[in-house]
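Quick question: what would this complex look like in 3D?
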Amino acid sequence: MRTYWRFAALIVVIVGALVWLAVGGINADKTYYKTVAELQQMGSHALGKRLRVAGDLEPGSIVRSGRQVAFVLRQDQRTIKCVYEGTSPLPDTFKDGAQALADGRMGPNGVFRASQVQAKCASKYESQPGQAHPADIPIRKAGV
Amino acid sequence: MENLGSLAILLAFCLSAFAILAGAIGGWKRNPFLAHAAGRAVYSVWFLLTVAASVLVIGLLTGDFRMAYVAAHSNRSMPLLYKFAAWWGGQEGSLLLWSWLLSCYAAVVVFTNRRRHRSMMPYVVATLMLPQCFFLILNAFVATPFKMLAVGRHVQAVADGQGLNPLLQYPAMAIHPPMLYLGYVGFAVPFAFAIGSLITRQPGDEWIYTTRRWTLVTWMFQTTGIVLGAGWAYAVLGWGGYWGWDPVENASFLPWLSATAFLHSVMMQEKKGMMKVWNMVLVSGTFFLCIFGTFLTRSGVVSSVHAFAQSSIGKWFVGFLAIVIAGTLYLILDRLDYLKTEARLESVISRESSFMFNNLILVAACFAILWGTLFPVISEWATGEKISVGAPFFNRINIPIGLFLLFLTGVGPLFAWRRTSLESLRRNFQWPLLAGIVLAIALFAAGMRHPYALISFGLCLFVAWTIVTEFYKGARAIGAKTGRNLVAGAFELTRRNTRRYGGYIVHLGIVLMFIGFTGSAFNKDSTVEVNRGDSFVIGHYQLKVADLTSGDNDNYSWNRALIDVSKDGKPLGALEPERRFFKASNQGTSEVAIRRRLDEDLYLNFAGMSDDNQRAVIQAYVNPLVSWIWIGFWVVLAGTLVCLVPSKQRLQYARTQVLGVRTNYAPVEK
């Protein structure tokens, strides 16, 4: 019987440690998906959280100035101003009318500061989930 | 032609449904005619699917652009290899490949077991045909590969197809999906045997032996597929890494983890009759994860967070999974008496316990990855907010898990069954442990401060040392007896017990891969905007942009940089990263330039042109030790193949160890 208690204790320790790691990991790394409308309703709640917002690139809104790229995402009737200042160049598909996904934080002035941007050409891209993954892999620098 | 293909799929669907009924009723009523007919139906399904697949492949190769699938995934200018690979380039073709591979496996199972496992085989056939039937429903009614392009009521060809996704036009990528599918699909076979043995309350261990070999084969394919995918990501995607915890990568990793757990815990059942319920759960769980993985990759349910469309195929998978899981659970619960354990755990420091912790950890990793992958779905369901977690979450939890597993890899095989004495612990682990600790201290003294890296390198040496010692001791014993030298002795040793020593070789390969993974703790990267003549530095390397060129052809336009590399003033040659932009698909790809060496890779990616179109944006990475991952993989593959070779003498060592008697390191001949 004592052996079983020892096993139980070891298992509790291991599982406990893993749960602790997992909870910490989720809290440190979570990203909220928001629509443009939701983002605007959040107001000051949006500050500081990592967010991901998707929309169509408003034609004519892309303005490049130095390393900064400003653009506007539109979803239905709502729009949001975004600024991208990342180091990686923007994808080739980042063009007027394309679907884009911006990953970043809300700035205090109501401008969304994106650290990563993905884009897909809306007209050409046929949805093929199986094929999607290579093309979908975002620009990132995380190893194993 | 296309009618022939559709007809073949429809007939195959009917026959697979028949095989399920004939197998189940034939087994239940012990009717040999029905059971035999079920086997014949399996062969017929294979034949019909081969016909259907041939029709599709011929269409792809000859460029029959009346077919929607051909027009979407092939074009006139692609090389023959990629025309063939377009078979699995899209949804419908992939699902047909799935079906066809499953029918191949099923036909091989029926053929190789035509004189064995008589009472159980009808049920095995029925179970195998269950997913077959499901996938044929998809092939026939949901995602049929033989849709034609038509204007009004007239079938009409287009002039040229859209071609295979340019990112997939890479040799490793052409064979990555079939390898992965061979793994995914293959786990249906162990599952079928498990269900068959459950239904018939199979006595003895013979079915376990069959199951284990099948699992090993599919595990090998799965491993190959995963590593090919990683190698492809590294060489093609241009972000400098090989694994990013993408949902699709995770989907392939989950069944691999549970299958690895099963390969270990099944030894407990073979040798000691323990963990029977658990093994049932693992075999079935692995199969479910395979279906689930196909579902994840095919339905877009999770990748929808960055893919922008969903497919309707998901609900079919959910329905199928729900039915099969419920059925399996019922069977296991109904037959718990048959799965009673024959022995008890006796000590925390024993082989049994090391297997148990190995399983606990592998399943925990599996669960954590599943949880993280599905987190957007779970959080949306629970709180209404869609929240995702990325690579940092997965690394945070999986690095400690990986290190603990590495530790178990070293100690587990040297623990004795039942209980291990302190004396044997000291004898086996004294030197390896000391070596590992000394290495960690030396690296610390040399300036390495990364805690996980120190632990990992120390453990790698520790494990490698224990494995080499095992080979050395055994080879020496045989050498002393037969007068062979050490190499011949080690060879003979492996031949006598391929499973054990093949397993050690696999472990050694895993150690090498861990060395490669650990290297990522010291990755360096930098992004620069450069013009012709500019220089920049990364790590020990000085890089000088000798030339920037650009051009255009029918297929794509390109930018290329010629970069001279030197290290400490010594020239090392030039690298030529290139960026291509494909016109037909409106998609860019990178032709990464990598200087691969055993100590580190220098990796250059032409990321694009700067916004004013004057300077090139170059991403440079120094990735230490990456090559060891690929080397380690070849070792794992070799070890797995060794495991599959039958041993010279099979059951002897198992028996002696069950009694708790430790033989010499080499199993002794009679």
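Answer marked as accepted. Chain A touches chain B through 58 residues (CB under 8 Å).
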